[in-house]
Amino acid sequence: MTAATLDSRLDGVVGGRTAAALQRAFELRTVRELLWHVPRRYSNRGDLTPLTGLPVGEHVTVLAQVLDVRERRMQRRNGKLLEARITDGTGTLQLTFFNQAWRAAELVPGARGIFAGKVSEYRGQLQLQHPDYELFEDREVGSQEAAALDRAAARAYAERPVPIYPATAKLPSWSIQQAIALALDALGPVEDPLPAELLRDEGLLPLSRALELIHRPENAGDWRRAQESLRFREAFELQLALLHRRRGLGAAPAAPRPPVEGEGGLLAAFDRALPFALTNDQRRAAETISAELARPHPMHRLLQGEVGSGKTVVALRAMIQVAESPAETEAGAAPGDGQSALLAPTEVLAAQHFRSVVDALGPELVERLQPVLITSSMPAAEKRRALLAVAGGGARIVIGTHALLSDNVAFYDLGLAVIDEQHRFGVEQRDALRRKGTVLGAEPEEGDAKREAPRRKGAQPHLLVMTATPIPRTVALTAFGDLETSVIRELPAGRQGIETFVVPLLERPKWAERAWVRALEEVAAGRQVYVVCPAIAPGEREEGEREEGEATDAEEGAARPLASVEQTFAELSGRADYAGIGIASLTGAMRPDDKDATMRAFAAGGIDVLVATTVIEVGVNVPNASVMIVRDADRFGISQLHQLRGRVGRGDHPGLCLLLTAAPTGSVARERLEAVAATLDGFELAEKDLELRREGDILGTAQSGGRSALRLLRVTEHGELIDHARSVAESLLERDPELMSAPGLAEVLEREAQQRRLDNLAKS
Ligand code: ADP
Ligand code: MG
Questions:
Q1: What pTM was computed for the model?
Q2: Pocket of ligand 1, candidates 312, 422, 622: which has the most ligand atoms within 8 Å of its Cβ, to mutate?
Q3: Domain annotation for the chain: domains and CATH numbers
Q4: What is the structure's pLDDT at 107?
Q5: For residues 519 and 511, is the Cβ–Cβ distance under 8 A?
Q6: Closest Cα to atom 22, ligand 1: which residue?
Q7: Which atom of ligand 1 is nearest to the CA of 420?
C-alpha cells in the first residue's frame, strides 16, 4: 500500500464504515481533517492502583493479568457483551466491552498488561467499561526480571496521557483514537508548509511531529508543546490568509472618487445644512474615508461605533462624495455618475435608513441624488421603476436589503458599497456586492445607449462596513482581518444617559408590576415604551436564528415558557390601567409592509407601547422612546442587550432600561445582565462578553463567511498569540508578497480560497 498523505480520503485509510461515521459526525473527509480533530483534553492514567480498595467513580490504572473471558448476549438491548476478569493477586476486576468480540483474541487468559478506565459498580461487581489497555509482550511469567520489566513498562504507561476527543454517542472517543492511530501509521512523510526558518524562529515542532504528539503523547510535556505549535500554525495561517486577501483586494483597480474641493459642491452644502458639528471621531473617520475613496484601489474599511455614535452621517458623506466626484472620460473630467449602495440587514432597517437619508439630505439634495429603496417585498411596478433608476444611473443612493444582491439589480456605476451591521452578512455577500461593481461598470446593457457608462473595466467599488457591535481587537483581527478599521468612540454631545436595572423576578416577583406601572408613568409624560420579548407566540422558541452569546437551553431551565409578544400584548391590553393606551406589536413574522407601517406609526407617536421581538434591534431611531423593558432578558446576549437599550435615550429624555429575568443570583445568565447594567461602554461589554461566553460562538456567528471552525485557537484566550502571528504573517508578506520562498504556504492559501468557494456553493 502506498503511504497516505494529508490529502488522502479517509475511506482508504481507516476503512469505509469508520470513514462514513467520521464524516457523518464531524464532516471529516481527509486525513488532514481527521488529524486536526484534536483531543479536547487529556486524562491522566495516574498512579497504579492495587485492585483491593478501588475507588468507584475514579480513573484508575492497574497492572494485572487476564483471568478469564466470556461473551454473552445482552438481556435488554441488542448486541453482545464481552466480559473479562483481571487480577493482580490482591483482588479481581471486571472489564466490559460492548459489541467488540474481537478483543477476545488479545485478552486471552494469562495475558498481562495495564488497564485504565473509570471504576463503576454493577450489581456489586466493580468494573471498567471500555477501558484503555496495553498488553505486554509475552515474557516468562514469574521471573524477577519479567516483573521488573512489567513495572517499568507500567510506569511509562501510567504516565502516558489518554487523549479525550470530541465524540458522539455513536462515535466514542476511543474509536476516534483508533482511527487516528491508523491514519498516523499510514501517513507518509509530511511536507511542512512553514519555511524552516520560521520553525526555528518560533521554536515550532515540525508539522508531522506536532501531529504525532498531539494524538500520541508520551507525557504531558509532549502534548503541551504540540498544542502550542499547532495553535501557532492555526493563528498564523489564518492571519496570512486574511492579510493576503486584503492585499489582493487592495491591489485591485477601483475608480478614484476624489472629493470636489471648495464651497460649491454638494458635500459642502450638506455639511452647511447639518444641524450639528461632527464629533472629532466622526471627522477623523470621515477624512480617512474621503482620502481612501480618492485612491485608484478599493477601500475596505470597517467603521465601528456605538449605536447613536453617528456612523450613518459619516457614510452619507462618503456617498455624496462618490456621487459628485468627477469621472475621468476620454474627453477629460466630467461630472460624476457614481452610485452608492447601502445594504441593511432587515427590511425595517432599510426602510428606516431610507427615511433618515431622505431627511438628512433635504429636498434639494434628494432632487439631485434621487435615493431609492429596493426591497424584495415592494410592489412590482414600484420596484421596476426603482430598478430602472438604478440601472440608468439617475439614482445615486440605493438602499435595500440583501435583495440588492440579486441578479436583476444592475447598477450604472457602482462606486461605493456600504454594509450596515456587518455581523449579519458574510464574506461571500461582500464579494457578491463587489462583483456588481466589476461586471456592471464594465459592460453597460446593450440597447441602453442613452447614456454610456463610464469606462471602468474591472474596477471594484469601494467598501465601507459599519457595525455597532464593539468588537474586541483580536476578534476583529480574526473575523474581519481583511478590513482596515476606524472607530467612533465618542458619542455626540448632549446625548442623554441610559440607566439600566436588572429586575430579578425570582427574588422579587412583585417588581414586574412596578415595571409596567413605571412604563405607564412615562407614557403619561408623553414618552414611548418598547417591550421586548424573546418569542413571538406562547410556547415558541426564539424568533430567527440563535444570537451569539444567548443562553443555551442546557444553561437554563428550558422548560419554562418564554415571554412572548402575543401573550405580553394580550396581558397589557387587558390591564385596566392601560385602557386608552396605544399598544401595538411588531415581529419578524408580520408582512413587511405591516411591519413598516407599525414602525412608522410608532416613530410618528401614534403608538405608545410597542411590544416586539428583536426586529427592533439595530439602528431603529425614535427619539421620543424613553423606556425599554426586556422580558426574559437572560435569553439575549450581552451585545444584543446593549444594542437593544441603545434604542432609548436618543432624544431629550434620559433612557431607562429594565431587564426582567428569572435567572437566579450567581448564574452566568445573571452575571451577563449585571454586566450590561453596570456599564454603558460597549467595548468594556464586548470584553466581558468574551469572558463569559463559550469561545466557539464568536467566530461562528461573527464570521458567517464559512471558514471551518477553529481547532486550537480561542480568540477569547489567545489574543497575544493572534497579534504575534499577525505580525509574523505581515513581515513575511512584506518580504515575499507572492510567497515564492514558501510554496507550501501558497498552497495553504489556495486551499483556503478553495474551501471558501466550496462553502459558498454549499450555501447557495
Ligand atoms: P449610528 O448609525 O451610529 O447608530 P446615527 O448616524 O443614526 O448613529 O446617529 C444617531 C443620531 O445622532 C441621529 O439622529 C444623528 O442625526 C445624530 N447625530 C449624528 N452625529 C451627530 C453629532 N455629531 N452631533 C449631534 N447629533 C449627531
Ligand atoms: Mg445606524
A1: 0.64
A2: 312
A3: 45-160 (2.40.50.140), 203-246+700-761 (no CATH), 266-488 (3.40.50.300), 498-679 (3.40.50.300)
A4: 92
A5: no
A6: 492
A7: 2
